[in-house]
Amino acid sequence: MIPPHLSPEELKALVRTVPDFPHPGIQFRDITTLIGHPQGLAASVGHLALLAAAAGAQKIAGMEARGFIFGAAVAVQLGIGFVPVRKPGKLPIVTIGIDYALEYGTDRLEMDPEAVAPGEKVVIVDDLIATGGTALAAAELLRAAGAEVTDALFVIDLPDLGGAERLRKAGITVGTLMEFEGD
Question: Which domains are assigned to the chain?
């Protein structure tokens, strides 16, 4: 495993804040600047890989789309498989899926039911935890496929939106590299 060379605080400085996006009063945390910085991306993946290894990950799952960036890289660094949790209609096979509530409406996640073995320890990796709805749905879907899901890792936590706490109440240990207070 490649050890991270930048601290989480140094990584936080690489995240760009875009005011008033997508709505007035929102402070959007843009990881484009972090993933565009070679040492920043490598260090983020390194920190997440250390946390996933400590959690006993046998596979990493990531949600489309930015979870693919970090999740696949963590899986490669650990030498384990990656499970893509997709938006509907993206897989050419029979899938299993779950509908989940958004702030306004619903969404759906799907996956290959053969992507995990029964009892396999899968750690969820994504770029950001906000309300937690997508991560909770992914955990439920992975569990329906037979995976053991007890840990979820994120680059950024927005604690004011309560997602990490929702995951903890659902029995999932949450690890993050940084947090941003406020919207």
Answer: 55-179 (3.40.50.2020)
